[in-house]
């Protein structure tokens, strides 16, 4: 009821013509949702529409241009905490009974929330265990995946939790965290902060994980941009991870923002780049994976669903083709695995693929044990869509 009144109040404010006094407050309150529109007549309707067009195509673009931080908020969406009522300190509530919650401090006074999920087969042993037990599990031969999540939500987001469960059931450790500004982590978001937090967690892992145990980096969506930033830095330092997995990646943030559903309304607006994309760049947000692949030297696996509505399939394919031509990646396996639209995995559901264990089986056991030779038949191969037959 209150909503409807507000709506009609604003209708009255818009009219402000003496002749429209007949549509007084009482009459307005009795009318249904459609009534105020009808009373406005054709001219009124057009005025209302013009006003909307003015707001959408003039006010909003200028406001964004004047306050580029709005664009940063839309890129990070860290204020969206879906699901709202979960306690990140209690991963058990989400059925993660072999997961430990801990906090690391990448910078003095800045704590970030981390989850370590052990391989599922350790779940009985994990009951009631503390941090030192969890740390000791890293010295087994089970491979470790550092998972870098995308924008919006927290490390407890449902599609993320489902992936941790799937990966841990395959025998992987999964370590994930909320970047500064996300979830229960301190600070505010920035591309540089996301990258340095991931480097900090990677180094923390590297000190605990056995030398012979493979360590992989898995990024999803916006997290793929963080992942290529991180792996580029690791390769620059001469210590690449054993593989980089990019789930639903894009080439760079400008191309992604141009094709994001949010941009639909504006895509054909003259000056779209100037209004919206330059505002992103003005925040120092680049996520230039297409550039980073020219500085990366470790096996790369790209997973992308053809029906991804958030990061278009074409962007993942484009990144793959750029990675295929990269000098620094020559001699390393670069693989692209598409998932047919018929499977409906969209942006978040690749974890549902029953083919995932087969796909991941080809990840190198450890880079220094099995260097990929130039004769490697899997090198730079586009695998046909797994599971196409099941649809
Ligand atoms: C704990 O998790 C494991 C692996 O996910 C599952 O198989 C098991 O049933 C869970 N145990 C309980 C008591 O919920």
UniProtKB/TrEMBL annotation:
InterPro entries: AB_hydrolase_1, AB_hydrolase_fold. Residues 1-32, 365-391 are annotated as: Disordered. Residues 143-249 form the AB hydrolase-1 domain. One of its GO terms (biological process) is monoacylglycerol catabolic process. Residues 19-28 have a biased composition (Low complexity). The chain crosses the membrane at residues 49-66. It catalyses: Hydrolyzes glycerol monoesters of long-chain fatty acids. Keywords: Endoplasmic reticulum, Glycoprotein, Hydrolase, Lipid metabolism, Membrane, Transmembrane, Transmembrane helix. GO terms for cellular component: endoplasmic reticulum membrane. Its EC number is 3.1.1.23. Residues 1-16 have a biased composition (Basic and acidic residues). It is a single-pass membrane protein. It is found in: Endoplasmic reticulum membrane. GO terms for molecular function: monoacylglycerol lipase activity; phosphatidylcholine lysophospholipase activity. Lysophosphatidylserine (LPS) lipase that mediates the hydrolysis of lysophosphatidylserine, a class of signaling lipids that regulates immunological and neurological processes. Represents a major lysophosphatidylserine lipase in the brain, thereby playing a key role in the central nervous system. Also able to hydrolyze oxidized phosphatidylserine; oxidized phosphatidylserine is produced in response to severe inflammatory stress and constitutes a proapoptotic 'eat me' signal. Belongs to the serine esterase family. This is Lysophosphatidylserine lipase ABHD12. It comes from Cyclopterus lumpus.
């Amino acid at each position: 009821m209150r909503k409807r009144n507000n709506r009609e109040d604003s209708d009255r404010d818009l009219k402000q013509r003496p002749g429209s006094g007949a549509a007084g407050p009482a009459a307005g309150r009795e009318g249904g949702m459609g009534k105020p529109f009808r009373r406005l007549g054709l001219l009124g309707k057009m005025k209302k529409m013009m006003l909307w067009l003015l707001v959408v195509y003039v006010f909003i673009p200028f406001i964004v241009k004047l306050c580029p931080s709005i664009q940063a908020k839309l890129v990070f969406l860290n204020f969206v905490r879906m699901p709202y009522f979960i306690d990140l300190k209690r991963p058990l509530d989400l059925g993660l009974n072999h997961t430990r919650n801990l906090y690391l401090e990448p910078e003095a006074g800045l704590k970030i929330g981390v989850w370590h999920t052990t391989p599922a087969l350790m779940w009985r042993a994990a009951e009631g265990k503390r941090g030192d037990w969890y740390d000791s599990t890293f010295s087994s031969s089970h491979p470790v995946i550092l998972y870098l999540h995308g924008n919006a939500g927290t490390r407890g987001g449902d599609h993320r939790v489902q992936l941790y469960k799937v990966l841990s059931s395959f025998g992987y450790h999964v370590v994930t965290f909320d970047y500064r500004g996300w979830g229960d982590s301190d600070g505010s978001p920035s591309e540089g902060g996301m990258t340095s937090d991931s480097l900090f967690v990677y180094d923390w892992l590297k000190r605990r994980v056995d030398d012979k145990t493979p360590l992989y980096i898995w990024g999803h969506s916006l997290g793929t941009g963080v992942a290529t930033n991180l792996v580029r830095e690791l390769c620059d330092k001469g210590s690449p991870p054993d593989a980089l997995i990019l789930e639903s990646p894009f080439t760079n943030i400008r191309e992604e923002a141009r094709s994001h559903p949010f941009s639909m309304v504006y895509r054909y607006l003259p000056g779209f780049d100037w209004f919206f994309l330059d505002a992103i760049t003005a925040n120092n947000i680049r996520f230039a994976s297409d550039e980073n692949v020219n500085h990366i030297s470790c096996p790369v696996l790209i997973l992308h669903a053809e029906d991804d509505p958030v990061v278009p399939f074409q962007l993942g394919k484009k990144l793959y083709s750029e990675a295929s031509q990269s000098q620094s990646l020559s001699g390393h396996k670069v693989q692209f695995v598409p998932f047919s639209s018929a499977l409906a995995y969209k942006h978040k559901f690749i974890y549902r693929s029953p083919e995932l264990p087969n796909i991941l089986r080809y990840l190198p056991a450890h880079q220094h044990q099995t260097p990929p030779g130039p004769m490697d038949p899997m090198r730079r191969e586009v695998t046909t869509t797994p599971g196409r037959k099941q649809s």
